[in-house]
Design goal:
Layout lengths: L7 H35 L5 H23 L4 H23 L3 H26 L5 H33 L4 H16 L14 H5 L2 H30 L5 H24 L7 H19 L4 H29 L2 H33 L1 H29 L7
Helix pairs in contact: 1-2, 1-4, 1-5, 1-6, 1-8, 2-4, 2-12, 3-4, 3-6, 4-12, 5-9, 5-11, 8-9, 8-10, 8-11, 8-12, 8-13, 9-11, 10-11, 10-13, 12-13
């Protein structure tokens, strides 16, 4: 699709549709990621390790479809797959409502696979503008839509659970989100032509390295938060089910604040300050979480960690949009997304193993050295990337 950037109405409608479908898909998908672990633990009596394996299956399925299918499909085929995936995704939400212990595994894998065919294409759609300022504002608005969905979703789930107090009902009440996303899916634009560069061009690109490392520094603790913090808050801190999802709402509210601030401000030539701020807040938030012995302290840690959650993803995507032309950006986004899915595979398994053997707080404390090491690598690459200048990064 050729976006006419001088046509304000066309640009506005395009961005609004992109934001709506992002809100619909991400809010329902986040509900799956945060509710399936609690459902499997409290309804089907899964151990922490089994909960980790279930969440890892979700990440593995996403990784396979993103890296092996979405990154390689031709544009016209990928558009058709995108629309069909939206329909099947809606069906999977209904299936979660009726799932038993076995179907839960199958449906978790299915929803993860569909995520890998849906989200990278929306990321690419957000960055199709040729004008850099407009493109980076569009990316910021896309990530703002992600935050809106992650704020509204937990509040919506809190309302559902306060009425029904049954962890199966959120899947049923989120199914209309999938129906509306399916209706809007034909209006998401795709590039008119693409190239698929070799993988080594990604590993040698400094902007791509910063994007990946920055998200690793945050995504490692974020996987722990998504999978295990709800169980920890309920089992150890004695929060009710509805209160658990208010904690997620606090987390995603501060994330939204950081992302909306990026949407309204003019994109900066240098992103170094935002990179450093993200790393510092991540380390500080995890340290407080490891020391939390009350629900209030835990809520404060969740609120602090929401800010780097809001910053890390848009800053990473801007690094990618500045490093690749539109013809190769889908492949870059797909490989970037698939690397994040690897963390989603390994994180829950390792997290479940550590929690069963050393407890929640010690598991969070062990994350700190790994995050600090990755932060050092981020800072090193960011200095070189900023020193080279944005223009020289485009390949």
């Amino acid at each position: 699709m050729d976006l006419e950037e001088t046509n304000f109405r066309k640009v506005a409608v395009y961005i609004i549709i992109m934001m709506i479908i992002t809100i619909l898909l991400r809010s329902s998908n986040n509900m799956i990621q945060t509710t399936v672990p609690t459902l499997s633990n409290h309804i089907f009596n899964y151990t922490q390790f089994e909960v980790g394996l279930l969440s890892a299956l979700f990440g593995l399925a996403s990784f396979l479809t993103t890296a092996l299918l979405n990154a390689r499909l031709e544009v016209h085929v990928r558009r058709a797959v995108f629309m069909v995936s939206n329909i099947i995704y809606t069906i999977s939400l209904f299936l979660f409502y009726v799932s038993g212990p076995l179907l839960l595994w199958v449906n978790t894998a299915l929803s993860g696979a569909l995520l890998g065919l849906l989200m990278p294409n929306i990321i690419t759609a957000a960055g199709l503008f040729k004008d850099r300022n407009l493109r980076e504002r569009s990316v910021a608005l896309y990530t703002t839509a992600l935050s809106i969905s992650l704020v509204l979703g937990p509040y919506y789930e809190h309302l559902i659970l306060s009425i029904f107090n049954d962890l199966r009902y959120p899947f049923l009440f989120f199914a209309p989100f999938g129906i509306l996303a399916s209706i809007l899916s034909p209006f998401i634009p795709f590039p008119e032509s693409e190239q698929s560069p070799k993988v080594r061009r990604f590993s040698s690109n400094r902007g791509f390295r910063v994007a990946v490392l920055l998200n690793l520094a945050y995504n490692i603790p974020f996987i722990f938060i998504t999978v295990f913090s709800g169980i920890y808050a309920h089992n150890v801190l004695k929060a009710p089910y509805s209160g658990v999802y208010l904690l997620y709402a606090v987390f995603f509210t501060t994330s939204f604040i950081s992302r909306i601030s990026m949407s309204v401000r003019k994109p900066s030539e240098r992103l170094t300050f935002l990179v450093y701020l993200t790393l510092a807040l991540t380390v500080g938030g995890i340290a407080i979480m490891a020391l939390s012995y009350s629900l209030v302290i835990f809520a404060i840690a969740m609120a602090i960690l929401g800010f780097p959650h809001g910053l890390s993803f848009p800053v990473s995507l801007i690094h990618i949009t500045r490093s690749y032309p539109s013809e190769t950006r889908n492949s870059a986004n797909s490989y970037f997304f698939s690397i994040m899915m690897i963390v989603l595979i390994a994180g829950p398994v390792l997290g479940g193993f550590m929690i069963e053997n050393i407890g929640y707080r010690s598991a969070f404390a062990i994350l700190l050295p790994a995050i600090i090491l990755i932060s050092f690598l981020v800072v090193t690459n960011e200095k070189i990337f900023s020193g080279e200048g944005v223009a020289t990064q485009i390949q």
